Structure to design on (788 residues):
C-alpha cells in the first residue's frame, strides 16, 4: 500500500475518534452544568484544555460561557479542532484513501459528514444538543462498525486500528493531564459529596462511569479511578488497553512485512511500563509526571510510525 | 402528458408511437405513475450523494461538490444500431493509432499531401518529444471516448474523438447501477447488454500494453491530480474498481530508471500508469516546469521503455478540432476503407474561403475554438443574441485560425422526466473504446449526456447538462 494511504487512513480514524471524544466530553460538561452549575465553568475550561483549543477559544471569546463553549467545540469556524472540522478532515482523508476503503466504510464516513454538516449548520440551541451528541456518537460508531464488519484484515486495517487507539489513548491521557490534581491525596477529602462529583467527571469525560461502577462496587476512589483509566486492560478506553492494541496491530504489520521497526521497540517499551507498574508506584513516581511522560512517548511513537511506514516524503 | 419533439426523437421518432427499441420500455412506462417516478428520481439523487458521485466546480466557494443531474428515462439503442456504431468506432480508433504512429515517425500522410504540414508542425498538441518514440504495444490511445450525435433514424455523426484523457466512464457505470437498484423489474423484462465489466476490461487491456521490461504480472496505477480535481471521483472509482493504486505526483519518483511509488515498504516500480493528468503537467523536466502534478523524469523513463503511459503523451494531435476535419482522409489513408461514421462538415476558418462563409453565416453555425473543450468558448449561432454574435465576431476576426465552424445539427432528442411528464431534450453519446495489441473493445453503451434546458444543445455537465443510462438491447 502507498505510504500516503497508510498515513491517510491512520489520520482518518484519528479524526473520527477525536470528534467522538470531544462529543463525549461535551456530554460530561453538559451533565455537570445541569447538576452542579457552580462547577460548570471549571469543567468547560478543562474540556477546552484537554481538547487543546483553550488558547483559540480565549482569542475569540472573553469568558467561559457554557453555550459558547459548546458551539465552539462543535462547530465554530474559528476552531480548527471542532467536531465539524474533525469530521470534515476525516472525510477529506477518506476521499484521499477511497481505494483502500470498502464502499460501506466510505459511505459511513460520507453519511456522517452529510448528517453533521446539516445538524451543525446553525448555532446549537440547548434543546437540540442531546440529539446532536447522540448523532455524533452513532455516526462515528457506524464508521467503526462498518470498518469492523467489511474490511479485509490486512495492513490497511492495521493502520486504521492504530489511528483509533493512538487517538483514544492520547485523549484519555489529556483528560488525566488536565485533571490529575483532583486525584491527588493532598486535596483528598474522603467521602464528601463534592469530591465524588469531581472524580466522577473524570470518568464521565472518558465515558467510563458505568464500567467503573460495575467493576468497583460503585464506590469512587481516586486511586482506583486512576488505576482503572491507566492500567485496567478490561476498559476499552484505558491507556494500557489502547497500547496493547497498538502493540498487536504493529506486530501484525511486522509479521505481514517480515520486518520489525523502531516503532515496535518503542511500543514494547510503553507496554512494558503498563505491565510492570502498580498504581501505587505511579502515584509515588508522580501521577502528573507519569502522564506527561506518556504523552511525550506517545508523540514520539506517532512520529516514528510516520517515518517507519513512509507516510510522507 | 407528453410533450412532442420537433426533432428526431429516439423514443417517438417524429410521431406518436414509440419506436421499436422503446416499445417494451414504453409499455412499462405507460403503466407507471409519474409521482412514483419523481420520487424515485429523488432517491437516485440521495444515492449519488451518498456514494459521492460528485464533481468539483472550479471557482465556486460554497457547494464545491455538485451532482451531475441524472434522468431516469434510458437512452435505448438496438443491437443493429450498435453494431454499426461499434464497427465505425473501431475503424476510427485503429486509424487514429496509425495516424499517431505515422505522425511521430515517418509522417507519410504529410508527404502524401493529405494534411497540410503546418496543421501539424504549428500545432501545440503535437509533441516533438514524442518523435521516434515507440509506445509499448504500439498503442497510443488506450482509451478513447468518441462523441457521437444523431440526427435521424440512421444518421450518426462523430462530433469529437476524445483521445487524450476522456472522462465520464464512471457515470456510465454508476448510472447503470442506479437503474438496476431503482427498477429491477425493467431489467427482468428487457434484455440490456451489461457494461459492468469495463474496469476488468480496462485492466486487462492496460496490462497487455505493459513494457517489455516487465516480465511478471504488471503493476498498474491511476495517476490523479488530486482530490480537488473535478473528476477525482472517477479517478478513485476506476482505481478502486480495477484494484490498483491511486497515486498523485508526490507519491512517485524515478528510482533506478523506473517510475516508482512510495509504499509502506519502500519504492515499488510501476509498469503501466493510467494518467488522468494532461501532457503539459506530466513531467516538469520535459513540459511545464511549474507542474507539481507530474513526475520529474517520467518522460525519460518512458522513452527508455521503462513504463507505459496511457494514453500516450501527444495523442492530442489526433483529437484537435482542426485535425478533426481531416478525419475522413485519415481513416481512408490508413485503413483503405471508406469511413463508416460520418464527420460533421467543418469549415476551417484558417482557410480564406471558409472564413468568409463563416463570417457571413454566423447566425446559422456552431463555431468552436480549435483547442477548446467542455463547451466553453463556443458560439451556437441560432441560440445566440445579436450582441453575443457581434462579440464573437470580434474574437473570430482577431484570430481566425483559432476557430472552426459547423452547421447547427438537428440533434436527436430523448425524453426526460419533468414535473409535467415526459419532455424531449437533446442528447449526445460517448461510447468508450479500449485499444490494445489484441484489438479494440467497445463497451456496449456509453455515456449519454442530455441538455436539461428546453431547446439547449449544450450537454456539458459544466454547463448544466445531465446524464442518462444508455441501453444497448440484446438481439
Amino acid at each position: 500500500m502507498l505510504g500516503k494511504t497508510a498515513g491517510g487512513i491512520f489520520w482518518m480514524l484519528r479524526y473520527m475518534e477525536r470528534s467522538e471524544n470531544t462529543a463525549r466530553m461535551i456530554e460530561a460538561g453538559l451533565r455537570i452544568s445541569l447538576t452542579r452549575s457552580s462547577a460548570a465553568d471549571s469543567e468547560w475550561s478543562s474540556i477546552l484544555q484537554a481538547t487543546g483549543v483553550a488558547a483559540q477559544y480565549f482569542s475569540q471569546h472573553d469568558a467561559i460561557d457554557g453555550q459558547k463553549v459548546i458551539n465552539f467545540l462543535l462547530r465554530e469556524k474559528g476552531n480548527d479542532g471542532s467536531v465539524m472540522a474533525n469530521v470534515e478532515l476525516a472525510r477529506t482523508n477518506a476521499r484521499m484513501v477511497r481505494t483502500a476503503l470498502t464502499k460501506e466504510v466510505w459511505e459511513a464516513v460520507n453519511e456522517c459528514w452529510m448528517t453533521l454538516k446539516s445538524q451543525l449548520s446553525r448555532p446549537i440551541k440547548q434543546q437540540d444538543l442531546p440529539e446532536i451528541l447522540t448523532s455524533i456518537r452513532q455516526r462515528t460508531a457506524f464508521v467503526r462498525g462498518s470498518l469492523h464488519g467489511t474490511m479485509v484484515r490486512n495492513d490497511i486495517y492495521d493502520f486504521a486500528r492504530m489511528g483509533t487507539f493512538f487517538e483514544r489513548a492520547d485523549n484519555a491521557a489529556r483528560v488525566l493531564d488536565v485533571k490529575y490534581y483532583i486525584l491527588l491525596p493532598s486535596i483528598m477529602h474522603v467521602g464528601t459529596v463534592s469530591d465524588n462529583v469531581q472524580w466522577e467527571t473524570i470518568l464521565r469525560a472518558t465515558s467510563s462511569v458505568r464500567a467503573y461502577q460495575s467493576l468497583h462496587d460503585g464506590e469512587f476512589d481516586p486511586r482506583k479511578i486512576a488505576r482503572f483509566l491507566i492500567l485496567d486492560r478490561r476498559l476499552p478506553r484505558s491507556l494500557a488497553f489502547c497500547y496493547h492494541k497498538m502493540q498487536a496491530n504493529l506486530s501484525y504489520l511486522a509479521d505481514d512485512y517480515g520486518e520489525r521497526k523502531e516503532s515496535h521497540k518503542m511500543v514494547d517499551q510503553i507496554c512494558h511500563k503498563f505491565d510492570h507498574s502498580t498504581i501505587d508506584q505511579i502515584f509515588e513516581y508522580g501521577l502528573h509526571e507519569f502522564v506527561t511522560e506518556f504523552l511525550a512517548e506517545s508523540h514520539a511513537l506517532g512520529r516514528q510510525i510516520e517515518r517507519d511506514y513512509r507516510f510522507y516524503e | 402528458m407528453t410533450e412532442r419533439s420537433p426533432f428526431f426523437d429516439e423514443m417517438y421518432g417524429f410521431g406518436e408511437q414509440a419506436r421499436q427499441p422503446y416499445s417494451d420500455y414504453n409499455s412499462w412506462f405507460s403503466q407507471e405513475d409519474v409521482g412514483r417516478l419523481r420520487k424515485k428520481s429523488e432517491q437516485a439523487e440521495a444515492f449519488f450523494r451518498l456514494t459521492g458521485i460528485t464533481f468539483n466546480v472550479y471557482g465556486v466557494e460554497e457547494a464545491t461538490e455538485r451532482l451531475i443531474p441524472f434522468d431516469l428515462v434510458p437512452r435505448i439503442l438496438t443491437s443493429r444500431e450498435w453494431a454499426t456504431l461499434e464497427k465505425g468506432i473501431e475503424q476510427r480508433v485503429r486509424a487514429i493509432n496509425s495516424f499517431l504512429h505515422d505522425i511521430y515517425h515517418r509522417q507519410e500522410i504529410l508527404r502524401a499531401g493529405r494534411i497540410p504540414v503546418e496543421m501539424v508542425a504549428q500545432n501545440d498538441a503535437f509533441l516533438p518529444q514524442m518523435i521516434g518514440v515507440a509506445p509499448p504495444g504500439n498503442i497510443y490511445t488506450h482509451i478513447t471516448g468518441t462523441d457521437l450525435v444523431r440526427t435521424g433514424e440512421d444518421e450518426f455523426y462523430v462530433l469529437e474523438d476524445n483521445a487524450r484523457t476522456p472522462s465520464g466512464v464512471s457515470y456510465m457505470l454508476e448510472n447503470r447501477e442506479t437503474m438496476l437498484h431503482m427498477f429491477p423489474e425493467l431489467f427482468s423484462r428487457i434484455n440490456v447488454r451489461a457494461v459492468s465489466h469495463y474496469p476488468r476490461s480496462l485492466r486487462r487491456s492496460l496490462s497487455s500494453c505493459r513494457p517489455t521490461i516487465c516480465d511478471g504480472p504488471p503493476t498498474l496505477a491511476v495517476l490523479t491530480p488530486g482530490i480537488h480535481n473535478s473528476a477525482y471521483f472517477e479517478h478513485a472509482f476506476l482505481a478502486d474498481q480495477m484494484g490498483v493504486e491511486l497515486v498523485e505526483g508526490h507519491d512517485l519518483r524515478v528510482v533506478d530508471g523506473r517510475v516508482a511509488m512510495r509504499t509502506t515498504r519502500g519504492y515499488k516500480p510501476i509498469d503501466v500508469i493510467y494518467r488522468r493528468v494532461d501532457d503539459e503537467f506530466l513531467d516538469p523536466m520535459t513540459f511545464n516546469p511549474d507542474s507539481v502534478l507530474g513526475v520529474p523524469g517520467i518522460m525519460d523513463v518512458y522513452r527508455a521503455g521503462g513504463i507505459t503511459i496511457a494514453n500516450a503523451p501527444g495523442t492530442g494531435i489526433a483529437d484537435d478540432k482542426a485535425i478533426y476535419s481531416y478525419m475522413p482522409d485519415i481513416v481512408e489513408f490508413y485503413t483503405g476503407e471508406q469511413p463508416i461514421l460520418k464527420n460533421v462538415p467543418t469549415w476551417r476558418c484558417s482557410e480564406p474561403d471558409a472564413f468568409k462563409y463563416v463570417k457571413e453565416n454566423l447566425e446559422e453555425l456552431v463555431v468552436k475554438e480549435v483547442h477548446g473543450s467542455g463547451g466553453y468558448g463556443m458560439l451556437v449561432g441560432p441560440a445566440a443574441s445579436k450582441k453575443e454574435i457581434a462579440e464573437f465576431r470580434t474574437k473570430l476576426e482577431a484570430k481566425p485560425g483559432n476557430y472552426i465552424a459547423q452547421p447547427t445539427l438537428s440533434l436527436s432528442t430523448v425524453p426526460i422526466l419533468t414535473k409535467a411528464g415526459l419532455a424531449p431534450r437533446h442528447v449526445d453519446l460517448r461510447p468508450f473504446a479500449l485499444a490494445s495489441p489484441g484489438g479494440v473493445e467497445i463497451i456496449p453503451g456509453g455515456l449519454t449526456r442530455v441538455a436539461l434546458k428546453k431547446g439547449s444543445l449544450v450537454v456539458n455537465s459544466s454547463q448544466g447538462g445531465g446524464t442518462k443510462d444508455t441501453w444497448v438491447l440484446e438481439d
Chain A has two domains: 1-151, 162-313.
